[in-house]
Amino acid sequence: MNIDRQDVEAAVTGGAILGGGGGGWVEEGRILGRLALEKGFSEILSIDDIPDTSTLLTVSAVGAPSAGASLLRPEDYVRAVELFMERTAIKVGGLISSEIGALGVVNGWLQSAALDIPVVDAPCNGRAHPLGLMGSMGLAQKKDYLASQAAVGGSLERGNRVESFFTGPLSEVSKKVRESAVRAGGMVAVARNPVPCSYVKEHGAPGAIRMALDAGKRFLEKTVRQDRAEEAIERILSFLGGTFIGKGIIEKYALKMEAGLDAGQADLREGTTVHELTFWNEYMTLEGRGKRIATFPDLIMTFDAQTGRPLTSAELRGAHEVLVIVVPARKLILGAGMRDHHLLRIVEKTIGKSMGEFGS
To answer: What's the pTM value of the predicted model, to 2 decimals?
Structure first.
């Protein structure tokens, strides 16, 4: 894929929708994408263009979106990859994003321009997710896999600068990275989990960047005006194969930072009907009329009812009128991390809701 300035806007918009309430801030994704183009970034490779034995490195941002869109500096993303290569001496043949979101979809572009490493259209997951283990392509189930991760964030001025490198069992290393995000003020840039290209072909989500780009183009096909917000929603539902749930006013919203991530709940009232959303960065459950409507990894997403703009969970506020859609998980491009049922038990402890089983 050749990438230009219009593609940045489409990718970030489509990424925001597939973020399902998380996946980073739209403006941050837009800034990083445009900066990457200014630095010379221009193309994304298909995974079929990469030798099976080449090592692919995952890049991500870990932390709580409510900490702020500008918490990380562009150079932090580059430094995380540099630190990883310094500590491991691994020759990196390509960069893949951990997920699809407004930030996730462009993560790797700036690092590619700065370090001359190609970006590959094979994210770990084709939607956003709260836990690094969910974006690890099933590596958490491999007892003999030794994880290596570099985390960078914070600032010397604020006294919370973090440049950390961890190696060990994946679950323990992932905890250390989340702890680093807390110490850095809420967010760190991460480079992690080198694997052969052949592994990513089987366990990742090849084609997910293309899907986000096409979704964004469809959404932005016409200018989204106040009287056409629902028209744009209809286009995206047609493209993704989703369902419009309804429009509602947020009458209750609660958010707290839990384990370095945003956890909370929002109630949306539409007449006498109240829909309850729970989230842990991303939307986890949607209920209404006493029934479960959708459960992660189903895609639950909110939009501003007036402008049609995709809204993350961290952007919801009381008295805000929003539109809600759902796309079944089977319609998405999901990586192997979405088939680890144990990870849903971790979500349940945080949000206090039953999550069933992935794919149920």
So the answer is: 0.93
